[in-house]
Amino acid sequence: MTEHARYVIIGAGIHGLSTAWNLARRLRATGKGDGGDVLVIDKTGVGAGASGVACGVVRNNYFQPAMRELMAHSVGVWESDPEAFAYHGVGYVQIAPEAMRSDVEQIYAEQRAIGYDSELVVGAAACRDYMTEMFSDWQAPGSTVVLHEKRGGYANNVASLKGLAAKAEAEGVRIRTGVTVTGLSLDDGAVTAVQTEQGDIRCEALVVAVGPWIRDIWAMLDLPDRIPVTGPDGTVHSDRSMWTYWALQEGTLEVDPNEFVDDRGQLPPVLHVDSDQPLYDDADGSLITDEMWGIYYKPDFSFGGVQGGAAPVLVRRPAAEVAVDPYGPESPEFVVGEDFVRMWTSALAHCHKRFEGKRSLYRHEPSGGIGAFTPDSFPVFDIFRQNAYVIADSNHGYKMLGVGELVARELLGEPSALLEPFRFSRYEAGRLHPTSNSPFPWS
User: Hey, which end of the chain has fewer CB within 10 Å, N or C?
Assistant: First the structure.
């Protein structure tokens, strides 16, 4: 059986649904079609992959100017309908050591330049005063810079995707789940049909928004799994892997979210702590690490506790050996280990006295998942094979709700300056994004 849709979007996560919703709206507004021209397919269901298990943090805390401008746009989209997107605009606070001070100061200066509301605190004493005014039990030493973004916050992952799907369907978009893609038909270099277990779907344009499954669709597009990358110094690295997998490290401490409030009795901003202080085990006092470490956390009623994570762990196996279904229960990358539990709960206790001795409240369940990172750990938004638009978010995905609007415009012939720095050509040309001193690979 063969059917037809002008636009086929693979993936019913944050990018696929956002693109579908905005594309349908743009088609109708320009008189070029309507939502019935857009078909979203997913092998499982809405939010069944990375978006559905995302921590949900929405921030503009990026050292890279292009990412910061793109996130400012996305935060605006989150704020446009907080009820439908299950969005909580509580803000975001980064607490960092002297080694990251200049990076954070630069972030603040550039946020001011684009009119993004934030507050900078500098100096160990001032930082301690700022944090203890927010939390009287704050006890983390060694911080010399605090950046408090007054916008941003977090969203309920599952609820936001349901809201996004409802918006798309209200515009006439068709969403079909349980449809597994098996291949792509190429004719004279362009995609003419998406092959599925239920038959072919002919199309005029394809949008690939599949998160960590990008490796497989990339191969179906007959694109290279290893590419040349020109470094900032002009050195050409001729054989870099296009995809590297990192196992995300996230979890939940099962305490009443109502108990993690600030000293005003209000829900606090999302907290992100980077530290160069030695981290000791909260239970036995043994050294966990004396290198730079970082965590993020927030009270979250959708998770039923204090939820957050730490830096991901590199998957040492070749990309080809990573589970085809990285969000299935059989995937070893889906379950965080005891090393993470020990580190994260000890780090919470390092920061707040209220979390001392609470490790037994850690909820042991599958968490985190896996991310497919590009060679420079930043997204790729580009057209391949003439009519296949690839959204490869490099695990920055969920927070970037605004990408769908920009992609929809590009599909209708309106180039986006915000997406231009993320073209695939940057690797060979050496137009890479700057890196910071953060312990997180996506920075």
Answer: N
